[in-house]
Amino acid sequence: MTRSRRWSNALVGTATALLLAGCAASTATGERPSIAAANAGSAAVAASDPYPSRYHRQPYEPFVIRNVTIFDGRGNRIEHGAIHVADGRILAVGKEEAIQWPDGILVIDGSGGYVTPGIIDVHSHLGVYPSPAIRATSDGNEATEPNTAEVWAEHSVWPQDPGFIRALAGGVTTLQILPGSANLFGGRSVVLKNVRARTVREMKFPGAPYGLKMACGENPKRVYGSKGRKPSTRMGNFAGYRTAWIRAQEYKRQWDEYEAKVAKGEKAKPPHRDLELDTLKGVLDGEIRVQMHCYRGDEMAQVLDMAREFGYHVAAFHHAVEAYKVADLLAENDTCAAMWADWWGFKLEAYDGIRENIPFVDAAGACAIVHSDSAVGIQRLNQEAAKAWADGRRAGLDISEARAWRWLSWNPAKALGIEKETGSLEVGKAADLVLWNRDPFSVYAKAVQVYVDGALQWDLEDPRYQPVSDFELGQPGEGDAK
Q: pTM for the full model?
């Protein structure tokens, strides 16, 4: 006999699963490098992750959500749909009439609701600029040198940031935490699953590549020019990039020669380890993805030229207010543009923004992404996508809602290199999904239930699944994340 429940009172799973998430047994995605290997200073150690994920999927019973409209994240819309989840994975998704599920399974009746992939925010500073936003918690910009590629955002992330919970209530299941944009090379980013945890390693997305935050334009030249230092101009910015990449190429050559000798059984002394150059070498090796803060179209074109000069790939330009001017170049270079729906004009390089930026980039065949860069904006990214979609429609672009959802899930997953695991509702993928009470492009839409790897993390009507940060315990307004 099937256990059927409406989504409005689907109180499912074990009540303690969320509370004990931080105490669950750790499951690392990779082995720690041996002490001997570390002491040898091998390039494998330099390029590997010395702080592997300890994320552990929370236990949750199999379930089916039926009688819903589904945006699958790949551009398809399924009416009268259903999705079957077990062991954290999607077992089936499609028309309800075509899906079978076993007797006794929990069935959630989502009548009138929508199911989408979880939202992925590729540009967040949660944890490194947490709430409360005071000087003591400001850990996002190592604004001491133009090149700080040696710093890693994960070493600043505060897992107790209440912003993570607010984002969860808005349907965000995965996010990239970036250093700030003061520097030419700001440091490594980290991709997190939006789950409650004690440590950043318990949030790290298993197997997700690192990113390298870079910045062009006004920020680096203002920060360092005001100190009477380089760079103080845009040409100084580019000279700084190119000088660093030249050093990185030489560093890579030394390590490649060393590894070639070792592979032949020859004795060789490893080069001296350099944390800054380890990161840049990781980019040249194709293991670390460049995530570049850049507003103006002409600068994006110059950065793409520089990437060709040194043999690396730009995964995404962030903010990209003028991406519409170079959308063809973005498509040609398989580079994404992560954009706001309508933020513009707060500085000169952000002046020439248009509301149709996102849909115009999409229409050109490039990878368009909606991002937040805001602890507030991240809570309503579905509405940001809706605004951009509506602006595109008014401009005459025939973009469906289902296609526009790619801006929130599939395209961000592609930019982060995790599209084989998440970003769409497909058989075998992680069950990162959101049940909405209505069309998610409606201003009245709310995320009723949010799942990460098939485990319920947020329930609009069940206080057991409305987590509270340790920092908020005993504070006024405790737990008010709706």
A: 0.91
